[in-house]
Amino acid sequence: MNRQSEWFRVDSPRGSRRFSNLCWARIPVRGAMGFPAVGISSYIGEDLIPTLPSGQIVFIPQGIVMCFYGIAGLFPGFYPWRTIFRDVGSGYNSFDKREGIFPISRWGFPGGNRRICIQFAMRDIQAVKLEIRGGFYPRRVLYLKMRGRQDIPLTRIGEDSASGETEEKAAELARFSRVSIEGF
């Protein structure tokens, strides 16, 4: 979502709350849930899930170990869900021509530095840099090239967007901040 006036522009990059992350987060949790299901099935002597037969598994020690593996597998399985729930990586990039500042704000992981806020002077922006790589894993990243500092990524490296979309965003940003575009 972008909002822009003559003197002010706000871009809101997406965080980890994306459909692809929801799909990938389901896989380890569902896999981990199969282990305690087999362990409990071996205890009660009846298959809870027909595709996971437990007839040859003895509850002690194999069934207990299966339950333990399932519980242990849930911990790394819930990690992606926590990042999706907290929407890690979301925030805003604002450009204020009147004040001459460019603050970046992002949500991080819980702790003392959960909210990440960095502020730059707009006069330090040299160019808008666009990195596009084709191939099997295409990569489209938009950077701000700063004087005396490393490039600042404005889009997520794994963000899925069309090439034309990224180029249009780079052109709008370069037009607004009155700098050139590199990397076309």
From TrEMBL:
Primary subcellular site in the record, as a coarse category: plastid
Transmembrane stretches, start-end: 27-45, 57-79
Swiss-Prot/TrEMBL keywords: Chloroplast, Membrane, Photosynthesis, Plastid, Thylakoid, Transmembrane, Transmembrane helix
GO terms for cellular component: chloroplast thylakoid membrane; photosystem I
InterPro entries hit by this protein: PSI_Ycf4_assembly
Subcellular location: Plastid thylakoid membrane; Plastid, Chloroplast thylakoid membrane
Membrane topology, as annotated: Multi-pass membrane protein
GO BP term, example: photosynthesis
Annotated Pfam families: Ycf4
Family from the record: Belongs to the Ycf4 family.
Record's function text: Seems to be required for the assembly of the photosystem I complex.
HAMAP family registered for this protein in UniProt: Ycf4 (MF_00437)
Name assigned to this protein: Photosystem I assembly protein Ycf4
Lineage of producing organism: Eukaryota, Viridiplantae, Streptophyta, Embryophyta, Tracheophyta
Name of the gene: ycf4
